[in-house]
Amino acid sequence: MKNNITLYVMGKAMYQITKDSAKTAAMRKAILSEYRQIMLNAKDIGKKNQLLSAYALAAWFIAMNRVDDLSPDKNFEIMSEGLRNSKMFSIVMGDAEHYLAPKRIEKQKKWAESTHQKIYENDWVVDVVSGNGKFDLGYDYLECGICKLCRDEGCPELAKYLCKLDYLFADIMGLNLKRTTTLAEGGKKCDFRFSRK
After folding, report:
1. Residues β-bridged to residue 128
2. Which of 146, 148, 184, 143 is nearest to 56 (CA)?
3. Average model confidence (pLDDT) for the chain?
4. Among 5, 13, 67, 79, which one is least packed by beta carbons within 10 Å?
5. What CA–CA distance (Å, rounded) separates 161 from 42?
6. Mutual orientation of helices 52-67 and 72-84 as an angle, nearest 10°?
7. Strand pairing class (190-196; 175-178)
């Protein structure tokens, strides 16, 4: 995948957010180097893909697990705590009102429709599910770029950890997330259902 500013910024941000995972400066640099190599080898998903940052997070998590001697559980704990404590990340994520704004949802529907064209092999394929009183907004992910990247990198077992981050992201934005199944754990889809807290 070609380098772009989003991938560069995500690498630098994750370097800071997860710096406690590496025992030495050399190990931190090795994780950053491995992240960059994973992203260079990764199949393209489009430089304007709105899930590019999720793809980059997955690459960083894979790099952490390749370079350090910590378990995936411990690396997930470090990554999720770092993301939760990052003021910059909270600002980028926004809040429930932004996430559930009607204009944004209309854009999401157009985006979801475009994913079914499958222009990029490792892209997500998604359907938007309108709120029905039980939830405000839903997504059914039928294909997942994170699962594909983890598969390509020979570590499909790591994808399930990254699925857990969705609950953290929802919490940061002031949303509740309910999900009954994920592709990473063998389901036919990831059924996200968001509601305001």
Report:
1. 139
2. 146
3. 92
4. 5
5. 19
6. 130
7. antiparallel
Per DSSP, the residues of the chain read ----HHHHHHHHHHHHHTGGG-SSHHHHHHHHHHHHHHHHHSPP--TT-TTHHHHHHHHHHHHHHHHSSS-HHHHHHHHHHHHHT-HHHHHHH--HHHHT-HHHHHHHHHHHHHHTT--STT--EEEEEE--SS-SEEEEEEE-HHHHHHHHTT-GGGHHHHHHHHHHHHHHHTEEEE-S--GGGT-S-EEEEEEE-
Side-chain half-sphere CA neighbours of 31 within 13 A: 31
Which pLDDT score is estimated for 158? 98
For 165-193, the pLDDT digits (tens) are 999 999 999 999 999 999 999 999 999 99
Lowest mean pLDDT among 4-8, 62-66, 135-139: 4-8
